[in-house]
Amino acid sequence: MPSPLSLNHWIPIAKVLSVPHLETEYQQMETILDELLNQVGDDETHPLADLLETLSTLIEVYKDEHYKVADAPAHEVLRFLMDEHSLSANELPEIGNQEEVLKTLNGHRGLNKEQIQNLSRRFHVSPAVFF
User: Fold this and answer.
1) Cα-Cα-Cα-Cα dihedral sign, residues 15, 21, 24, 28
2) To the nearest 10°, the Cα dihedral for 47, 52, 105, 76?
3) Which helix (H) or strand (E) holds 84?
4) Architecture per CATH, 74-130
5) Do 30 and 24 contact (CB within 8 A), yes or no?
6) Where are the domains of the chain?
7) The pTM is what?
8) Rounded CA gap, 33 and 128, in Å?
9) Which own/partner contact pairs does 35-42 have at CB distance under 8 Å and 24+ positions apart?
């Protein structure tokens, strides 16, 4: 009796379900993750939700190894993430309107728990980077 998981099953999905080791592999996985996020959203019962979680974990492994984040205040981490994703202050509904985002970026306003959760999902980072 053949094994339920064989080499024939693995080869087609290996690029999607393997830890990325190169920047190009990481970027491809980020693209797939973005597509999944558009399809799945916050629906934990969606058939692809487990795949979304698995890809997020594999990406996090790569980021932990290649993008070590030094301890920095939340507003500096947020500014860095915005720069990396070419976002302006009016493109962060997770925080609020442009004025609220600017206050946060200037360190005059902190992030609450809900904002941190939403930002960590959006940028695929651990919530801990905002503490």
Assistant:
1) positive
2) 160
3) helix 74-84
4) Orthogonal Bundle (1.10)
5) no
6) 7-66, 74-130
7) 0.51
8) 21
9) none
